[in-house]
Hints:
alpha+beta, 36% helix, two-stranded parallel sheet
Amino acid sequence: MACPRSDPLDDADYLRRLNRKATEQRVPLSGSIELTRRCNLRWRAPATRVAQGGPAQGRRELATAEWLSILDQAVEAGCLELLITGGEPCCARIFQRCTAMRSSAGC
Length: 107
């Protein structure tokens, strides 16, 4: 099967077309998740006042299986880039497992 020839796209044109198609098809190209509000430092900012020992008052941190399900759903939906944040994401028990599993999946 022969592919029709077309002029190569420059980067800006390619990104415009990619974003337009993603918007039309409601594909989340990027996103962000907050793994934890815990922090290993003693910051004074209200969002990071949770001690390393536990989750924010009144908020339960998601279990490993819940995070993995969310990450799988993001990949299946077409997410290409994911920002992992938190008070200190490395404090979350799931952080290393998430990054290792996603790296092995090519994400």
